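Lab notebook page, bench 4
Experiment: in silico fold of construct C2
Operator: M.H.
Input chain length: 129 residues
Purpose: comparison with the prior construct
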Amino acid sequence: MLLMTLGIVVACEKSETNNGQESDRERLIEMRQEILDQINAIPCENEEDWRPQALGSKACGGPQEYIPYPETVDESGELLDLLEKYTQLEEEYNKKYNIISDCRAITSPKGLRCEDGKPVLYNDEMEPH
């Protein structure tokens, strides 16, 4: 009887951990989408107003990706604060749930250009057109 009770308690703890992890992951997904929605709402008219910005945190260090960041539009720094908060939360998530990721380094893009009003990061050695 004691073993059955112990088994049920352990199963419940595992279930709560999984639900907590799912909930935390969903929060990160929603936050990332909010960031991308804000960026996509800003027209890219001059690539000098934008720069690549690291976003997220891999479990073994470094960013998950780079996204275009509108330096001149985000004068209050609210969007940058949101980017930094997201990165911090993902780092905490990785530690809390012992997440494993590839350790491939994500390098900063070579530059950014505006195409059809949208910022596009590029990695090739060619100059933007």
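Observations: The two ends are 73 Å apart (CA to CA). Residues 9-13 have pLDDT under 50 and may be disordered.
Next step: discuss at group meeting.
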